[in-house]
Amino acid sequence: MGLIIQGVLGAFHLIFSGNPDIIEISLRSVKVSGIATLIAFVFGLPIGLVIGLYDFKGKHIVRGLFNGLLGIPTVVLGLILYLILVPLGPFGSLKLIYTEMGISLGQAILVLPIVISLVAGSVSLIRSEIRELAITLGAGELEASIAVIREAIGGVILSIVAAFNRAVAELGVALMIGGNIFVKGSALNTRVLTTSIQMYTARGEIDLAIALGVILLFIVFGVSMISNVIQSRLT
Amino acid sequence: MDGLARDSRGISSATLLLVVIIVLMGIVGVVWYYQAQIQAGQRVVTISTTTSLYDTGLLETAIAPAFKERTGIELHFIPKGTGAAIQDAKNGAADAILVHARSKELKFMEEGYGVNRKIVAYNFFVIVGPQDDPAGIQGMDPIGALQRIAEYGQQGKVIWVSRDDGSGTNTKEINLWKAAGFNYEDIKNEPWFRNTGAGMGQTLNYASNQRAYTLSDTGTYLKFKKDGLIDLVTVVDKGEELINIYAIIIVNPEKYNKDFEGAMELEKWLVSEEGQKIIGDYGKDTYGVPLYFPVVKVLEQKDGDIYNWIVKYGFIEDNGKLTESPQKFRYKADISFFEEEK
Questions:
Q1: Per-residue pLDDT averaged across A155-168, rounded?
Q2: Which listed residue, of A43, A57, A121, B305, carries a Cα 20 to 30 Å from B266's Cα?
Q3: CATH class as words, domain B13-123+245-337
Q4: Cβ neighbours around B56 below 10 Å, total
Q5: CA of A22, closest CA in chain B: separation in Å?
Q6: How far B98 CA lies from chain A's nearest CA (Å)?
Q7: Stretch 81-120 of chain A: residues touching chain B, C-beta under 8 Å
Q8: How far does the CA of residue A134 sit from the closest CA of chain B (Å)?
Q9: Rounded to an integer, what distance in angstroms lies between the CA atom of residue A168 and that of residue A86?
Q10: What pLDDT sits at residue B32?
Q11: Euclidean distance between CA atoms B168 and B186, whole angstroms
Q12: pLDDT band, very low/low/confident/very high, at A235 (cuts 50, 70, 90)
């Protein structure tokens, strides 16, 4: 118990003393996972809309596939990506192993199913009522679809938040693709919150691990809260 | 009229969506390009290494900054444990490896992946255990101590904890058990023998909780002990078998197109006066004792117990001689290797 209290006290001291390393690591986490969410959103939104709005052959299989991928273990994805991205692997020439962009891409793949499933799910829920209403009121096909997206904006925002939170909190991809590199003052560092929490725990530097854990929790809760505010404004 | 207005609003929404997506993709592209530019502008040497060097902070906080100041080259250390570090280099992800398991290093070179092996530092492993020392091995020689632990273990009186992760520490442990007359693969399944499959820190924590014995590198043990995280004491710390020898091996440029010159710069710097001093001084202030010992002076003097142990446990046989790096594994090396007659 003493260890925990001591650790938490030390953690808050570290956070409020503005330790530059901690700030750098936290900002990198937000940046790397933010870009991952962006990529996932760019690809996930259109795919999710198509799945949610249109009927086509094999739709259930596609939806089932993405729903299944929601829970892919991050270590497994990390391992697969490692084998693909190492210089000897099929995409080794992209030079993405042990880089920030490598982590972002890996996390984007991780959270893409979240964006697709949540967008498709929320769109298809609203779809029948709004669509029928819009068409009854004399709207065209495209117009009706746009109306559906407007109504589903809450689900779209939720998909972004869920995707970001899963990305920022995952360890497997960040560790295996990023490598937890840290050189003071370097622009090529890849240490993020989760990898440093793991490292400091392994090194027995518990107060640092707790400090970074507290920051990670703040980021996750903070993003959720901001999205709640946006959602309540929009609806 | 009403319908027309709604139409135009509908189309602009679709266009807006498209524009947003294109802009977002553009942002990602710019970030990617920017990072690739930085990557191209900074010379980086990547070294796969062992957790026992990394977790004390020696590589990141002492060696990397000093080397960058001297040469402008940035060092990226990927800590993995010796076995995984070697695999990383085989996958082409590293320019050099910094490890501590001679048999695995030799295999790495024999398979054609590595050249120019150079010993850079040494220290000693320790056998640690609970304060009351239920096996009564305090001060014994390591082999006798392990035999006693096995005997008491099989009677259910003590527990031994093993890393069992293919690391250099694990390799040393396997060799020690062999010297004590046990086959690691056989005893590792016995109930008194626990395998963590984890790093040194976690293994020490487990051993502490279980009031068990384990083999540890000095650095990690001292760090955990000082921070009050473990309730274990050193029971055996003397004996040539416990010597722990760290070596750097450069990835063979004929195998992979890596930064051979940059990695050789690091090798030369590590055995230079500056590099050796940084290694020898690291941790002195914090722990009162150095965590690693510089090796070059010992090898130059060619005398004393430590020298003989390094030759015995760290050198490789080569045409009737013993050396850091056999002739056939030397490649365009503008550096000399220590040799000793058998």
A1: 94
A2: B305
A3: alpha beta
A4: 25
A5: 15
A6: 16
A7: 86-89, 92, 95, 97-101
A8: 11
A9: 23
A10: 87
A11: 20
A12: low
Q: What is the DSSP string of A43-92?
A: HHHHHHHHHHH---TTHHHHHHHHHHHTT--HHHHHHHHHHHHSTTSTTG
- Does the ipTM exceed 0.95? no
| Interface residue B179 vs chain A (CB under 8 A) | no
Q: Is the pLDDT of residue A139 over 80?
A: no
Topology classification of domain B124-242: D-Maltodextrin-Binding Protein; domain 2 (3.40.190)
Contacts of A101 (CB under 8 A, 6+ apart): A35, B31, B32, B35, B36
CA dihedral over B306, B307, B310, B311, signed as positive or negative? negative
Q: Is A26's Cβ below 8 Å from some Cβ in B?
A: no
Pseudo-torsion of CA A61, A62, A65, A71, nearest 10°?
A: -130
Q: Which band of pLDDT confidence, cut at 50, 70 and 90, is reported for residue B11?
A: low
A42 CA: distance to closest CA in chain B (Å): 6
CB contact under 8 A, B201 and A202: yes
pLDDT band at B1 (very low <50, low <70, confident <90, very high): very low
Write out the residue limits of the CATH 3.40.190.10 domain(s) in chain B.
Answer: 13-123+245-337, 124-242
**If pLDDT is split at 50, 70 and 90, which confidence band does B4 have?**
very low
Task: Please report, for the domain that includes residue A195, its CATH number.
Answer: 1.10.3720.10
User: Are the Cβ atoms of A188 and B76 closer than 8 angstroms?
Assistant: yes
Q: Considering its fold, how many domains does chain A have in total?
A: 1
Put simply, whether B62 touches A (Cβ < 8 Å) is no
Which residue from B10, B78, B201 is facing A203, i.e. has the nearest CB?
Answer: B201
- Domain holding A59, by residue range, is 2-234
> Is 60 exceeded by the pLDDT of residue B6?
no
